[in-house]
Amino acid sequence: MTTAKIKLLRAREILDSRGNPTIEVEVITESGIRSVASSPSGASTGKNEARELRDGDNKRFFGKGVLRAVDNVNTKISALLRDRDYTNQDEIDKIMIEASDSEKLRFGANATTAVSIACAKAAARTKKIHLYQHISEMFNGTEHAPSFPIPFMNIINGGKHSGSGLAIQEFMILPVSLGKSVKESIRMGSEIYHQLGNILATKINKSAINVGDEGGFAPVLGHDELALSHISDAIMKCGYNIGKDVVLGMDCAASSFFDSSKGKYSIDNKLVNSEELLNYYCRLVDKYHIKIIEDPFQEDDIESFIRITEELGKKTSIIGDDIFVTNHSRITEGIRRHTANGVIIKVNQIGTLTEAIEAARVAFSDSWNVIASHRSGETNDDWLADFAVGIAANGIKAGAPARGERITKYNRLMQIEELSQMSSNLFS
Q1: Which residues pair with 294 in a beta bridge?
Q2: SS3 per residue for 382-420
Q3: Weakest mean pLDDT among 148-162, 273-287, 310-324
Q4: pLDDT per position as a tens digit, 158-188
Q5: Do residues 110 and 348 touch, judged by C-beta distance below 8 A?
Q6: What's the helix, strand, coil split of the chain in %, to 5?
Q7: CA separation for the pair 317, 169 (Å, rounded)
Q8: Among the listed residues 44, 43, 62, 41, the one whose alpha carbon sits nearest the alpha carbon of residue 52
Q9: Are strands 34-38 and 246-251 parallel, antiparallel or unpaired?
Q10: Residue 428: what pLDDT?
Q11: How far is the C-alpha of 45 from the C-alpha of 322, rounded, in Å?
Q12: Cβ(289)–Cβ(173) under 8 Å?
């Protein structure tokens, strides 16, 4: 009979990086192990993703409190999982899935995510291994040598992540030439980020280096393409080669600048249709060595996703986020229809670690690029780095190399790299 049993689940309301409430869960086991995990929160969300549970009480946090989700963990979920084997992630998550609804709204995806990750952390501690090793065993059936993701650093914030007025939500750099070393990749990204800050402060003004939700600068530029131009200048001033050492990426989050009343997209102070927007992307790809385009069209514009994948998919990864929402069934359909060739994986978007792993497994089965992603409302929990390494993700989105809730993920990646180079696998 297993002794790896849950004694108690205890949840509390904490603040995320935007100062909004989110949930933190502590798992206490019969053997005395305590593990804590918290759930992030997105501003730009897909309409089909699992739902957070918010209180709706305007007297507290303008209705954004999470005391109902906290109570669900402390009472309903705790009663379901008490005395369960927390090292059996499939069982833990299945119990929550079956007791909830398809959108996780009964308990709140913010609650189930924090519980799921906290149990995984407890299991890793019990096995005296690191979380990334435990997730690797879950993903592969046995532990594999760690594979490290390329950092996707969002260094100019637009869309719903800032007040810059830029339509495109994220302008990213991907340090690729030194990809064998996480430490060197992060150093490159940090240098480019600071060089970009110097350029923006000099060419525009000091207010241009104010930052958005994900730590990237939020300059008022007037035209989205100027963001790519300034980033290119920063890369070159650091002595790196665009297209060789560093490539560019964009998370367009096009649903956020789609005008449903007109059936067109609003960008650079004009309305364009899907065909015109596709031509715009094609021009940017050729001019700026863009290798990642995420959510280039609104989430229901499937035919345009298929078209851009046909047009650009051989030289650029077309990544789906809102259209797939870390759901293995939706990814399977995307593979069938050639809707994209890559996917964003967000644990809180589906609500449990098991389901996120299954979504990644489906995407890998068709050789898609898999990117493990944070949310714009983050916490100082660093589990995303372990998750990205554990599933051998091609990339990790953790924001700019700035702000504590972003930096903690990058610092953990460097720590994992160091641990993987040590001769001993002893837990520390």
Answers
A1: 251, 319
A2: CHHHHHHHHCCCCEEECCCCCCHHHHHHHHHHHHHHHHH
A3: 148-162
A4: 988 788 889 999 999 999 975 569 999 999 9
A5: yes
A6: 45, 20, 40
A7: 17
A8: 41
A9: unpaired
A10: 39
A11: 7
A12: no
CA distance 28 to 31: 8
Pairing mode of beta strands 170-175, 34-38: unpaired
For residues 339 and 331, the answer to whether their CB atoms sit within 8 Å is no
Known catalytic residues are 214, 346
pLDDT digits (tens, 9 = 90+) for 9-37: 999 999 999 999 999 999 999 999 999 99
Query: Are residues 328 and 358 in contact, defined by beta-carbon separation less than 8 angstroms?
Result: yes
Question: Could you tell me the two tokens for 115?
Answer: 């519980």
The 3-state secondary structure of 137-179, one letter per residue: HHHHCCCCCCCCCEEEEEEEECHHHCCCCCCCCEEEEEECCCC
Token look-up 């990204």 returns 189
Q: Position of tokens 């308990």? A: 107
The helix (run of H) or strand (run of E) holding residue 306 is helix 302-312
